[in-house]
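Supplementary notes (optional reading)

For those who missed the lab, this is the record we used. Protein: UspA domain-containing protein. Length: 136 residues.
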Amino acid sequence: MASPLVVLTDFYAVTNHALAYAAGLAVSLKAELVLLHAHHDVLLAPIGLSPYSPISDYTTTQALQALAAEQPVPTHEVSERELPEAVRAAVHRHHPWLLVLGSPDGADTPVEIMTGTAMDLLTTVPYPLLMVPATG
């Protein structure tokens, strides 16, 4: 089995679009997926731009397990610390082919937020990063 793809998810439909795209890649690559849910961070779901509300660890675990069960390839779920430390830990542990990040809030998200998120992640964890737009 090839190295996995790590998909950052926050349970919004837009990041689930990124997950669907990553799952398609994983099928082609015969790779696994790792769902990474980091605790709320302004990088992934800016408070002023999205209706984020924290959920319990138990609820998060259940949601990740349900999401993992729906995927067409073996999928592991991880709920970690704040970004970007969670990404650093996932890269160290799983040695993925790449990181997959969906753009938050679709077309309404300023380019600066998306670029800033990517740059912060790439600065902290210099690793291949695929940004999937909200619509394909």
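If you only remember one thing from this example: The domain at 16-132 is CATH 3.40.50.620 (Rossmann fold).
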